[in-house]
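re: that complex we talked abt at group meeting.

here r the seqs, copy pasted straight from the sheet so there may be weird spacing, ignore it
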Amino acid sequence: MSDLSSAAIPPVGPDDHVCGEGEEGVLVYADLACPLCAADWPRLRERGGRLVFRHFPVASKHPRSPALHGAVEAAGRQGRFFEMVDSLYADRGRVDDPHLWERAERLGLDLDRFEADRRSAEVEARVRRDFESGIRAGVTSTPGIFGLPGLYSYR
Amino acid sequence: MIAVGDQAPDFSLRDQDGEKVSLSDYRGRKVMLVFYPGDFSPVCGDQLSIYQEVKPEIAEKGVELVGISVDSFFAHKAFQEKLGIDTTLLSDFEPKGEVARAYGSYLDAPLGFANRALVLVDEDGKVAWTYESPNPGEFPGANVIFDALS
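got the structure back, here u go
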């Protein structure tokens, strides 16, 4: 049984999804089907410093979220995590499976591996791990943004 | 807010399907009453959506979530469908806010709706724990529920 009681935001670890350099930056709990996250994403990408992405799919609100988070996690296993996130946020109207396959091909991914990975229990567990850490930290909406390095409330 | 240890006032309200639901129906089980201001407001939608995502884990703790607001049961049905949730929503509609008043969460005019509050009622119908938001614009994260249940 998962423990979802209050806990601090886990510090950035080696298996987090991180782009950019430096101590300063932001950590974001994001939902890939959330329009507010999509609106903020370009600003977060361009602000410089380190950017840490944590999965926070709210499936009841955005039914495609689990599939999209599985897709980026699977892309990440082939080294193209942030490219897939960029792609999904940039074009939110095409998120069905054939669109995901198109995106995977465009990014040069091994499609069979992408398909197997995005539906795997390991990927599902990895996404859920981030989600649960956000719940324990009191994230109540997306994007949930925290400043680095201190993980202070960003807004 | 109602005090911990008090007997939780019984009520009989219509759910989103128009069926009468009473607090006494839950006797022998724990129920978390989720008072919220109103259907279709952005914050209320976020709150119920987040809780939906951890509903199985709340159920594992032997607790059922029940939402209560002053909206009609027709509005509850539409709100439930919009959010894609299956949490029972009760209509504290007529007399307006009577149950929220009994639990001490009602905000008088000009607001005229319940403040965001959580009330855990135990198996014996007693108030086991309460939480009231500092204002209707803030809601307790799901972690607060699990803190109460741990």
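couple things i noticed - Chain B has one domain: 12-149. The domain at 12-149 of chain B is CATH 3.40.30.10 (Glutaredoxin).
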